[in-house]
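User:
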Amino acid sequence: MQNKYTEKGDDASFGVSGYSCSPTHRNRLACILKMVAAHRPPDATTLILDVGCGIGNIAAPLASKGYTVLGIDVHAPSIERAATLHCLPNLTFRVAPVQSLDLSRFDIIVLTEVLEHVKDWRGMLDYLAKGMKQDAVLILTVPNGLSPMEVVCRPSYMLKKTKRGTRIVQGIKRLLHTQDLTTADEQTPHVNFYGLKTLHTAFEANHLVVEQFYSIFFLWSLWECFFSKLISDKWARRDYLLAQHLPSSWRAMWFFALNNKTARCA
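Assistant: Predicted structure:
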């Protein structure tokens, strides 16, 4: 599916998120909101779980739409910052691993830019698929593991595996004026690099059916990753439109809405 490029003022809910000025994250958020709304219209009775919520830039816009949202993360400083930044009555943040929750409570589970950080990613996907209730939807987003951004960033991911390496990456970020809008945790390297075939094989193994699929950007995400202070919506929009003429396997970011309507084997 194709999706329209999202401008800064296209959605009022972006005002509660730090993603408004980032073409990459703003369009990621727009895809997630669209997928959530396609499954359930905004309503306080709809319970959403945002797994690995970071500093709350996805959870807060979802709550501002009227959903009841719980954001969880194992990184306490990120949760503390999220709670400070986003104060909404229908939004709660908690330091907790996903394995500590009863997933059958939730209508929608959001797992965005998390799975590539998890060593046992197949185990996490299996846990989510087994635990979610039958009419729930899992919104999953991951970067294309073979995209230019992921290839160029792999040395930095290797460095982030140690505290000394993390300090080197932090120094480079300061020199380039690079901003991290997703988490307060600097030591979060990608450890998985996905292709579409690998993902679809994992979905099939867990009886997860793809209801919706979006893929966006080509080279822009790489530019913004390194030069987030030099933002040009004109360039970002051109790259976004270019990506729509390329195969999905070439695009930088992938978005899946998955359900488990197919009965699982005993």
